[in-house]
Amino acid sequence: MERTRAILVDITKCIGCRSCEQACKQAHGFPTASEAKLSPTNLTVIEEHGEKFVRRLCNHCQEPACASACLVGALKKTSLGPVTYDGSKCIGCRYCLVACPFSVPRYEWSKLVPYVKKCDMCSARQVKGQPPACVEACPTGASTVGWRDEILDEAERRILGGGYVKHIYGSDEAGGTSVFFISDVPFEKLGFPAPPKQSMPVLTANALGDVPTVVLVGGSLLSGLYWITQRREAVARAEGNVAYPRPRFTANDDDEKRS
User: Fold this and answer.
1) How far apart are alpha carbons 228 and 95 in whole angstroms?
2) In what order do the strands lie in the sheet with 143-147?
3) 5-198 belongs to which CATH class?
4) Listed residue (146, 152, 25, 23) closest to 81, CA to CA
5) Closest Cα partner for 176 from 4, 21, 50?
6) Within 10 Å of residue 199's Cβ, how many Cβ atoms?
7) 3-state secondary structure at position 106
8) pTM value?
9) pLDDT values of the chain reduced to their tens digit, one per residue, 259 residues
10) What is the rounded distance in angstroms from the CA atom of residue 231 to the CA atom of residue 211?
């Protein structure tokens, strides 16, 4: 198997300086104003949970649900490890927003020609042998980058040294990721989601494989489309937008149109 790159975030070392946020913004040409959550111009963010600072960014899943859900291949897992996005292929369906178990991708709702935005682990920099901008800017070593197997070994070494929760977040969540977190506070207390251990595309494939074709074409397909529509609206509302307004008709509406 080809080796891939990965990032380790050690929450015990983060001092909340937000150097990673600013480095990311500068690398992508975004406005430098601080933001409280992930956005199209804020691809990594420091969240405060009591006395702890937690960095959020794309987890770069080994088998990314966003790429599996993309109808046109705009998202893909590269051989080096990052999950990248090609805006020239995107049709704006936003299924990636629905599929991501970590709720990472953001949509440019305010633009006439909107795109999906997410961290790409500075893929272009890594191809040149440079570290991600966020890692390079970290003054305390809270974020480090390396080969995935070596990063996992380092995380395991730190955990065995004591003082940490006995789990590497990302080692098996959603089938495993390329961004790992270690902490001295339980992850559920820091706002980390708890997705299934199995990769999301595998779960989907298994579920579909167990359903007769006639059902897929009928009720299950319609139910799936309804669920996706409802989920897309929920995502939009969570981001402060109104999505997919649908007209409401009654029996009297048709009479009025004919009169």
Assistant:
1) 8
2) 143-147, 5-10, 179-182
3) alpha beta
4) 146
5) 4
6) 22
7) strand
8) 0.79
9) 578 999 999 999 999 999 999 999 999 999 999 899 999 999 999 999 999 999 999 999 999 999 999 999 999 999 999 999 999 999 999 999 999 999 999 999 999 999 999 999 999 999 999 999 999 999 999 999 999 999 999 999 999 999 999 999 999 999 999 999 999 999 999 999 999 888 877 655 554 444 444 433 444 444 444 545 555 565 566 566 544 433 323 344 444 444 4
10) 22
**Adjacent-strand bridge partners of 169:** 181
Enumerate the domain spans of the chain: 5-198, 211-244
Quote the Cα angle for 246-92-248, to 5°.
Answer: 0
> Which residue in this structure is represented by tokens 């006439």?
112
Q: What is the Cβ-side half-sphere exposure of residue 13, based on CA atoms within 13 angstroms? A: 14
Residue linked to tokens 């405060």:
48
Listed residue (64, 128, 75) closest to 99, CA to CA: 64
